[in-house]
């Protein structure tokens, strides 16, 4: 169990060397400007208004926050509490789910519930991330909930309710995005949205947040991501060559356009690069729901987005893409090079 940051960091005052990032990747000061311009979309407004605002947010930023989304504040609070309680369980309880085996982590679709630390291949990483990470599939719920943590006792019930609601909200947002792109009704069907992975990040308080990262710069590989970041700051987005902090709004969801939506929209929608920084004051826990295409789904620019333009990307199979993603460590420029159609 020596590897879990939440276990050993409690008894250390210094940052171990293998958590120190190279100078060009270090956050340095974690006090970047909190961006007031990141769109906040009120889903209680008219559909015409939200379609237009979401379309603009996805083109300009690739991420936004949603409020008045219909998921109850009590459910969000209860879920945050139960996942935090999970990370505060005694070590032997967490040990039952712990793995550093990269094959466990890379299985796709994810077939089990596992607790990891750092990134996708702990043993072969140059530098480790300052985080522990619990991940499990969610959909359909009856197929997976039995594999989730047994403790805390309410975990399955609360996270089950939460995952259903967040899935429904993700599909609602995809519908608004679909309308904005002018795609045919039902475009984001089962093939593109069946997978749902819950990934819970736990970033313990850190002795030196200027030298390390909770997660390095990446774009999300999937279709769309909904993230609940509670009240503790740590998420940053890279826009126009600089890092901007995403203000914590405890009951809002941060919505992230995944790489697949960038391809499907023929580059119209942006998949934003982001990272997580740590802090020295308190632990930070985030709950991330990834909506994923089925493994064999062919991903390509949607025909109806092409009325006035030519396809910019080659078709690929989603599960093959995940290998490219891993090889390129989530670097969007490098992945674009692989799939871009060269004139
Ligand atoms: C992720 C992610 C950011 C955060 O899990 O893909 O970007 O603040 N998380 O935890
Ligand atoms: Ni991410």
Automatic annotation (TrEMBL):
Residues 193-293 form the Fe2OG dioxygenase domain. The keyword Iron applies. It comes from the Eukaryota. One of its GO terms (molecular function) is metal ion binding. Keywords: Iron, Metal-binding, Oxidoreductase. Pfam families: 2OG-FeII_Oxy, DIOX_N. Transmembrane segments: none annotated. InterPro entries: DIOX_N, IPNS-like_FE2OG_OXY, IPNS-like_sf, Oxoglu/Fe-dep_dioxygenase_dom, Plant_2OG-oxidoreductases. This is Fe2OG dioxygenase domain-containing protein.
């Amino acid at each position: 169990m020596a590897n879990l940051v939440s276990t050993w960091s409690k008894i250390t005052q210094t940052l171990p060397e293998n958590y120190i990032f190279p100078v060009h990747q270090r956050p340095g000061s974690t006090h970047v400007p909190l961006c007031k311009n990141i769109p906040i979309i009120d889903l209680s407004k008219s559909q015409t208004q939200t379609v237009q605002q979401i379309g603009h947010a996805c083109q300009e930023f690739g991420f936004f926050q949603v409020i008045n989304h219909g998921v109850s504040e009590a459910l969000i609070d209860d879920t945050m509490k139960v996942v935090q309680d999970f990370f505060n369980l005694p070590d032997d309880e967490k040990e039952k789910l712990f793995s550093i085996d990269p094959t466990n982590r890379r299985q796709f679709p994810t077939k089990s519930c596992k607790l990891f630390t750092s990134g996708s291949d702990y043993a072969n990483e140059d530098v480790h991330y300052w985080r522990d990470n619990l991940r499990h599939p969610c959909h359909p719920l009856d197929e997976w909930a039995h594999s989730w943590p047994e403790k805390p006792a309410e975990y399955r019930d609360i996270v089950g309710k939460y995952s259903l609601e967040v899935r429904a909200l993700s599909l609602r947002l995809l519908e608004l995005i679909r309308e904005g792109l002018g795609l045919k009704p039902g475009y984001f069907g089962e093939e593109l949205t069946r997978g749902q992975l819950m990934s819970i990040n736990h970033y313990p308080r850190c002795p030196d947040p200027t030298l390390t990262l909770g997660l390095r710069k990446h774009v999300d590989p999937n279709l769309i991501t909904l993230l609940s970041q509670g009240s503790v700051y740590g998420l940053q987005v890279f826009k126009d060559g600089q890092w901007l902090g995403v203000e914590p709004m405890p009951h809002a969801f941060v919505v992230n356009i995944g790489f697949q939506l960038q391809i499907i929209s023929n580059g119209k929608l942006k998949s934003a690069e982001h990272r997580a920084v740590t802090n020295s004051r308190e632990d930070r826990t985030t709950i991330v729901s990834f909506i994923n295409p089925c493994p064999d789904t062919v991903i390509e620019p949607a025909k109806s987005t092409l009325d006035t333009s030519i396809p910019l990307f080659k078709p690929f199979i989603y599960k093959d893409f995940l290998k490219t993603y891993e090889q390129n460590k989530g670097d969007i420029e490098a992945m674009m090079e692989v799939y871009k159609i060269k004139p």
